[in-house]
Design brief:
The protein is of the alpha+beta class and 468 residues long. It has helices at residues 16-32, 50-64, 75-82, 86-100, 112-125, 129-132, 151-160, 177-193, 197-226, 251-255, 259-273, 282-293, 343-349, 415-421, 426-429, and strands at residues 7-11, 36-43, 68-72, 105-107, 138-139, 142-143, 227-232, 244-250, 298-302, 306-310, 314-319, 336-338, 351-357, 360-368, 381-385, 394-396, 403-405, 412-414, 434-437, 440-444, 461-467. The strands form 5 sheets. A 6-stranded mixed sheet has the order 3-2-1-4-6-5, with helices on both faces. A 5-stranded antiparallel sheet has the order 7-8-11-10-9. A 4-stranded antiparallel sheet has the order 12-16-19-20, with no helix packed on it. Strand 9 and strand 10 (306-310) form a beta hairpin.
Length: 468
Amino acid sequence: MIDKGDRVLVGLSGGADSVALLLNLNKYRLERGDFSLTAIHVNHNLRETALRDQNYAVSLCESLDVPLIIRSVDVEGYVRKHHLSTEEAARELRYREYASLNMDKIAVGHHMNDVSETVIMNICRGSGIHGMCGIAPINGKIIRPLINISRGEIEAYLAKKNMTFCVDETNLSTDYTRNRIRLEVLPCLSDRINNRAIEHIASIGSDALLVNDFIESELNKVADKVITFTADYPDSLSAEDTLQPKVIVNRAEFLSCHELLQRELILKAFELITPHRKDITRRHVDAVCKLTRHKGSGTLDLPYNLCAEATYESVILRAKAPTDSPNSSFLDTGTEVNTGIDTEKLVREGSLAVKVNDFCNLKFKLFPKGDVDYTRPLEYTKCFDYDKINSRLCVRTRRSGDYIVINDKGDRQSIKAYMVNEKIERDKRDKVLLLASGSRIIWVIGHRIGADVKISESTTRILMVEVD
């Protein structure tokens, strides 16, 4: 864990774990003589006894001739600003202070009981293999020399050396989940199930670390093909707009992976989109996996103001926009953008222009059958048998009861079913313009026309409609 020439920083709270850690590392330093040792005490200013702990750290380091750095942080202010739990905020601030000193190694006092507590807590919260990994002995610059030592062994060691230590009274309260596991669950398992239960649970955590390393190596082989991280500007730009990050999961590549890797890929997607993982549980991962495997479109609300949005080719993880709603659109469902086509004028003049919105106009032209080439397949220009349209035309978005005739037999299909079958994404269905005659849809603009208005041998007049 410690190499020659390393500058090692020791986190010293004053509790039993950190005191035992400092004593052993100082002994090790004196024996080896090839690395330096500095202690740091971070005062969280949360308890009346916080100054007592700080003074104890000063006294201990003076007795050992170990340099001590003292830092004071505002945990309560950080909680209010970042909406974290007190425990999360204290940890983030503490490790931020550690990192600011730019040491080669940072030694902290986690031990075997901490591993068991973490494994049990994560399993109960609904974690997968990642949670079972517990706490890694080495994580970048962070080292945990006591990770294979139990809390009982640490306290016995300090008692043998007649060393006092500070007791954080908040650790004796069962108001916190971790404390309840430490004070109630682990003693019950050790006393009533197996006296080596803590050791066995920690061993599972070690095994899970190896399994996780293997999964990571397999994950790295496929991640780039399955997951894409990108950032876009919102649709309507203003001076205040910023890039909106999102993660795109390729459905086809995702489905080609083993089910275990699928779950890990979704976890990786979460890691890319949010720095927080505490409230992302197995339930959320499984829900996104299910959404990705499910054919069609859909949306899913997630913690940290995130959502997952399924399209026909991908699932997108992103932050929810303020305007997100099931039917958000530039037009309300069923909105008529033109009150009706003036057929008398069309017949009289042979042409007509209709403004749909600021971005789209429709041009209507009426011809005798022999005067126009109606056989060319164009996406945004369609030809119809005008005499088969027997009621007022209008341009609008979809509404309940809409249908389109899909074959020469006159079979009907609801517009909703048609859009699903054509894989028109859910959030775009209420934006698709329709040329309608009552509830009968003549043309799903940009897509197909109704089979009942197609040109036939008996057609005499052709209506050409062009999107401009």
